Amino acid sequence: MKNLQLYCAPPNRFYFFEQQLRNRTNDYIAVLPVNRAVRILKQRLLDASPTGALADPDIFTFDQLLLNLYSALPGAKRVLSAGMLQILIESLLEKTAGSLPYFLKGEHITSGLVRKVSDAVSELRRFGYDSKAFAQIKTDEKKAQPLKYSDFEILLQALDEALGEQLIDEPFAKHTAASQLTKENFKRQFPKVTEIFVSGYGLFTPAMFTFIEKVSAWLPLHIKIEYSADNPALFQHTHEAWLRLKAMGAEEHNSMRQSPFAQVLFHRDAEGAHKTDQQERIAVQPLSDRKAEVEFIAAQIRQLYQNEKILPARMAITFANLERYIPLIQQIFRRFQIPFNLSTGFALNQSPLIKLFLQPLRLASSGCEWEQVLGFLNNPLLPTQEINFSLLNTLLADRRIKRLTPGWTKYLLQSTAYKLLKTQQQEEIQLQIARIEEVL
Q1: What is the mean pLDDT of residues 163-182?
Q2: Are 61 and 34 in contact (CB under 8 A)?
């Protein structure tokens, strides 16, 4: 495919096409994997502009691009965030608990179960499955595990009903945007775009592949990945993408210059490749208590010094929590006549008590930024009732409320996201709001 150009090159952060984009008008789309890279590339292009001014370029993550295209579709629904989808899944699990023998197995609904089921449902939606499409699946696994497939079908049907005609989850919105993409609605959204540049990605979702295949039929599309056919084991993370893009007819430009080391790294078939036996380098010693641990370490240090002449000053020991071991180290190392130095000091402003004292000042200076407020409320040194603010945190993120300015509670309580919650969850939110207002 002449329009689809594939560049296999060494790591170049995310800005492989930066030079080609400089001094261009807004006749392109650049796609990068993370929001930070999007901001940095925009700033770099602005800095490189001769006039010091630049119209906001069309630079997105793939997720942003697909959601933008979805929002322009006729009859587009309101997109539900990942956090709100998880809350909705929890509610649906409770409502359909009696019909889900595979998920619940007689157990209570836990946060871990909700997270795992939500992730699985999101993955199914990312591949374009609603309840009807999922019911049509025919695999040997379905015959072997009918309860598993039945539970997913019931849950997907409940999700379709809950979302209704007004809402759609993010994964399914991206799938819908890609599957319904046409040249006409793309040109309507981006009339000036003549080329697309994609870099920084290793994994591509089905919606991304669909987008690439469709758009490359009418626009030049340039994709850069880190890959070399000389060592597919080293580049296994991009191998599937390389195969799929080549199958689309991509014209490959290979500028990967590998060192001799890179040619054999992780390459089991390469000459000289061999497994390393770690048994002589790593020792796992089960011990009964902290005293036994310190005595074992002291004996090992003395043995290394006596047998291999390794000085104690050349050795380092780490503990998960050094404070708990200090008395034992002082007692046992002195008995073994091993010199030691304990690195336990920290700056005064890192003291938990001083940080707590300074935190209200930071709240005021930040304009009651939510993250600062949450950190203050969760401080273990405060003599307050412990409250879990995770549900409120999800709602605030969904409504993009970053600062608790006057009127934030009214805006939140009137939102659709709040009204979708169960009565008990709404009461929890109100309790959390009351606690915050008391503190502020």
Answers
A1: 93
A2: yes
Which residue type is seen at 68?
N
- Torsion angles phi and psi, residue 150, rounded to 5: -65, -40
Phi-psi label, residue 34: left if phi above 0, alpha if psi -120 to 50, beta otherwise: beta
Strand-pair category, 167-169 with 251-254? unpaired
- Give CA torsion, residues 67, 69, 72, 76, to 10 deg: -50
Full-prediction pTM beyond 0.70? no
Per the DSSP assignment, residues forming a β-bridge with 5 are 222, 251
Pick the more confident residue, 343 or 306. Answer: 306
Chain Cα centroid distance, residue 126: 15
Asked if pLDDT for residue 172 goes beyond 90, the answer is: yes
SS (H, E, C) 374-401: HHHHCCCCCCCCCCCCHHHHHHHHHCCC
**What's the distance, CA 57 to chain centroid?**
25
13: left (phi over 0), alpha (psi -120 to 50) or beta: left
B/e letters for 203-228, b = 16+ CB within 10 Å, e = fewer, are: ebbebbbbbbbbbbeebebbbbbbbb
Give ∠ CA 327-331-335 in degrees, rounded to 5.
Answer: 165
Residues pairing with 8 in the sheet: 225, 254
With beta carbons less than 8 A apart as the criterion, state whether 126 and 206 touch: yes
**Is the separation of the CB atoms in 208 and 171 below 8 Å?**
no
Instruction: With a cut of 70, say whether residue 44 has pLDDT above it.
Output: yes
Who's near 168: CB < 8 A, 6+ residues apart? 77, 78, 79, 80, 176
Structure tokens at 249: 């007819």
Compute the CA torsion angle 71, 77, 80, 85 (nearest 10 deg). -140
Contact (Cβ atoms closer than 8 angstroms) between residue 170 and residue 67 = yes
Consecutive H or E run containing 196: strand 195-199
User: Who wins on pLDDT, 46 or 349?
Assistant: 46
Q: Which residue has the tokens 């870099």?
A: 199
Residues 70 and 211: their CA atoms lie apart, in Å, by: 12
Q: Which of 116, 216, 240, 118 is nearest to 171 (CA)?
A: 118
Sequence-ordered list of residues with C-beta below 8 angstroms from that of 130, at least 6 positions apart, any chain? 156, 160, 172
Lowest mean pLDDT among 140-149, 246-255, 401-410: 140-149
For residue 20, what are the contacts with CB-CB under 8 A and spacing of at least 6?
Answer: 197
- Side-chain half-sphere exposure of 306, counting CA atoms within 13 A: 9
Answer yes or no: are the C-beta atoms of 411 and 404 closer than 8 Å: no
Residue 289, SS3 per DSSP: coil
